[in-house]
Structures are given as C-alpha cells and as structure tokens.
Write a structure and sequence with these properties.
464 residues; TIM Barrel; five-stranded mixed β-sheet; 13 helices
C-alpha cells in the first residue's frame, strides 16, 4: 500500500502501527496511545478533534510518518531481529539497493563468539544473483508482488530472502551485512538473530502416542492444618507428591507472582505487582530453617493468642488475605531477625549468592516494596507509585538513595522473602519429580502486570 492509496486516517493509523511493530488488533484511539508512548506521535496529537483543518493536518502527519517508516524498512538491510524456525523458516528478509556489486556477511554464534562464518554474494544484475564461494543458496525475491520493491529518490530497493549456507543452531546469534553503493559509500548493519525450535520440547513423546494427565490447583483455596489460612508451598509439595504416586504427570498451579503486601485484598493472580518475583503470602514459615532452630519463634507460633488467630482464619468461608498477610509477616519477620542474628553459615552464603545472581533487580524490587509500605502509612496515602513525590519515581535520585540507606533492614526483609519463596518452590518441583511425575510442576503466568506495581514503576518507559 502506497501513501497515495491511503484514503482515511484510520487506515493510515493501522499502517503506521504495522510498520512500528504493533501487531495486535486494537481500537484506533488505543493505537494512538501506543504510538505516543513509542514517541512516534507527538503528545499533543488530538485524534478525536472535530476541527476540519486539524483533521487534515493529522492525516498529513500520519501519511508522512508512514512514508518515513516505509523508507526505513527498505533503507535498513535488516528491519527487525530475524527469527528462523527449525524445519519451517530458514531464510531471513533483507533489503538491498539496485546497482551494488556484492553483499558481504558475517555470522557469530552467541555461545561461541570465536566461531564465526563469513561469505559474500556477487551480483551480475538485480534480477540474477550468483552465490559466492562460501554461500550455497542464492537470494530470492521476497514479499508480495509490488511490496518488495520501493523507490527512494533515485534509488530502487528490493527485498530478498537470504539463506545461510549452513544449519543455524538453536539460540540467539549475531550477524552483520555490508555492501558498497553506486556512489562508493559503504553501508553496514549488525543484527541479533533468533533460531527457534519448530515446537515445544516433547518430554513425553506425545507425537508417539504417549499421554499423561494432571490436576490444576488454585493454591489459595487449599485448606490444611499446616497453613495460616490459605494454601502454602508445603501444601503444594505434598499434593504434588500424592498425585504423582497415583499416576499424575503434572501439577498445575495459579500464578504465584508477587502482589502488594500493603493491599493484600487486591489479590488477583493475573494483575500482579511483578511477574519476576513470588508472592510470599504462600510461604510455609514453619518450614524455614530459622523457625526450626528457634525455640522462641516456635513458642510464639504455638502460643494461645497466635493459634486463636490462625484457627479463626482457617475457619472463614472466604479467604481473608489481609489477616493471612499479617500472620505471615508477623511470623516471618521474626525468622528474618533470627537469620540476621544467628545466621547458618551455609544458608547465609546461599542467600548472598542468590541476591548476587539477581543483578541488582532484587534490590530495586525490595526497595519498591519498602517504599510502598512507607507511603501506605501516610495520611492521606497515595493510591500507588504514580502519586508518589517525583523524586521517588527515579531510582537514581538523591531522595531515593537516601531512603535506601535508612531502610536497609526492611529492604533486606523483602529480599529474604524472595529467597525463601525460591527455596520452597524448588522443593515443590523436586517433590513432584520424585513422585514419578513425567512433567512435574506447571506454573501459570500472568500475561501482564498491574500499572500500580513494580514492573510499571521500574520499567516505566516500556509501559503506556
């Protein structure tokens, strides 16, 4: 579709969204929002204007952006990171101008950068392409007729299918392409390249007729004498073991992503604070090493006052997330203090290794939790991070760094919760496999995260 063929603003918006990599269908005003967020449309762009002159200006702007995007699509040798699919897609689409003499390429395996391939293709003319000494496959015209040729000024560009002369290993790789144009100017582009399997790993051999069965579990619905009011990870491990011993091949569980501890009733597993971390409301606190070795914490847990709260919470017809969160925090924070006061050397080392393996993102998450807790106690309390003072929206600000210094204990606690969740979920996985399950633990995942949560705060530039 040429810009001349675009007759209305909605068609133009759709084309601009396609060229910008927005692949799913949505209403025009939603596309406008996404294009603004990507800095493609200006913030003051008014899609709903009724002013005739402004409508014409909007239409002209979008058409010019479509042309700009389409030009870039052809000027760039590779427009997007290409994806190869084993046994299905073995070519990538590249764009080249007429009149070049040869195309040079280099391919680097991601896991072994020292191992690389290189080659070149010599051109007799734009209609016939010869292979170079090391390249077996010729280039082929790519795309629908009329869409694989585009003229920019005096230069005609064409789309081609390029095939490497070897089987590309599964994984993430790097490649670069270069050519010298008619004016003697060298052009070069580097790109990531993804080689994906044809289908998911078939652990069971389903293609050969093997099948299995399993049970999906909503963990928060589970009742036992071992939990504080809703199912915990130990309940899940026990259930997995029982099912596996009775022939089940997998145990499914609802998303156990991290939710806000200061707003526990916002408990939807499909709108979490973060999909990168776990909900510690599901922890079995009595399974931690600190609980097991501390007579004081055990005595507190078994005290009449604490047990009365637990028993009332277990008997409720509906899950009381607020009370359960309070019980978990009450007990778990005592374990955290024990962990700091009398650390087991091996466990402390494992904790430090775990924290280091998170590349700083755990520190940011734990600080975000501490900030949430801090602001939730203000009067009036901000609804979420979007209403915090501006200096706390920036992890590099002086106010943020000062907060980190003053709240090390609380930040450490939230890191400790994630360490314990990781340990207990590993035990769930092991319990399932040790029971004879062919697949084991299957954890559901939320498609998105809450705009009020950690991901939207830390990666604010990626969210609309």
């Amino acid at each position: 579709m040429t810009t001349e063929e675009i007759k209305d603003i909605d068609t133009a918006l759709g084309k601009l969204a396609d060229l910008s990599g927005i692949e799913y269908q949505s209403e025009p005003d939603r596309k406008v929002g996404m294009l603004k967020a990507m800095d493609i449309l200006p913030e003051d762009f008014n899609y709903e204007t009724t002013d005739k002159q402004e409508q014409e200006q909007n239409f002209a702007l979008i058409k010019s952006l479509v042309k700009e995007k389409k030009d870039a699509n052809f000027i760039n040798i590779v427009h997007h990171a290409p994806v190869l699919r084993q046994n299905k897609v073995d070519t990538i689409e590249i764009s080249l101008p007429d009149g070049i003499q040869k195309l040079k390429w280099n391919f680097y395996e991601d896991e072994n950068p020292r191992k690389y391939y290189k080659g070149e293709i010599a051109f007799e003319d734009t209609e016939k392409v010869y292979s170079g000494e090391t390249l077996v496959a010729d280039l082929e015209p790519s795309g629908k007729k009329g869409e694989n040729v585009h003229q920019i000024g005096d230069t005609v560009y064409r789309k081609y299918k390029f095939k490497f002369p070897f089987s590309v290993r599964l994984g993430y790789h790097n490649a670069d392409f270069s050519y010298t144009d008619k004016k003697g100017v060298e052009h070069m582009q580097c790109t990531h390249l993804i080689s994906a399997p044809e289908k998911c790993y078939d652990r069971l051999g389903i293609k050969d007729g093997n099948k299995t069965w399993g049970v999906p579990v909503q963990l928060y619905e589970q009742v036992s004498e071992n939990n504080l009011g809703l199912g915990n990870y130990s309940d899940l491990a026990q259930l997995g073991y029982i099912l596996g011993k009775n022939g089940a091949g997998l145990l499914g569980v609802n998303p156990v992503h991290a939710n806000r501890a200061d707003q526990p009733e916002n408990a939807s597993p499909y709108s979490p604070d973060s999909r990168m971390f776990f909900n510690y409301i599901y922890l079995d606190v009595t399974a931690t090493e600190e609980f097991k070795r501390s007579p004081e914490i055990q005595a507190y847990y078994n005290s009449e006052k604490f047990q009365q709260k637990v028993q009332r919470n277990r008997r409720r017809a509906y899950v009381d997330y607020t009370t359960t969160q309070e019980l978990v925090d009450d007990l778990l924070y005592r374990c955290y203090k024990e962990f700091k006061k009398n650390p087991d050397k091996e466990d402390a080392n494992r904790f430090n290794v775990y924290c280091d393996s998170q590349d700083g993102i755990l520190d940011m998450y734990a600080t975000f939790r501490a900030l949430n807790n801090y602001f939730s106690k203000q009067n009036p309390a901000p609804l979420d991070w979007r209403y915090w003072p501006d200096e706390y929206k920036d992890p590099k600000s002086e106010a943020f760094l000062e907060f980190v210094k003053k709240h090390q204990d609380e930040i450490g606690y939230y890191k400790y919760t994630q360490y314990q969740c990781t340990k207990q979920l590993e035990e769930v996985k092991d319990s399932c496999i040790n029971s004879g399950m062919k697949i084991g633990l299957y954890m559901d995942m939320a498609v998105g995260a809450s705009p009020k949560g950690f991901e939207a705060w830390y990666y604010s530039g990626l969210f609309i």
